[in-house]
């Protein structure tokens, strides 16, 4: 049986540094469109990545 620490570690391992930078950009710019432009990614691509992070970290 996995410990809580192992569960959290496994989930965090599936989130990349790039994913975290995208989350930071949305928080910094308070806008998906501006964050996407700043990170040189499409708005839909950014939205997809943010959703992935939310799904992974939302279940901690």
TrEMBL record:
This is LysR family transcriptional regulator. Residues 15-60 form the HTH lysR-type domain. InterPro entries: LysR_HTH_N, WH-like_DNA-bd_sf, WH_DNA-bd_sf. PROSITE patterns: HTH_LYSR. It comes from the Bacteria.
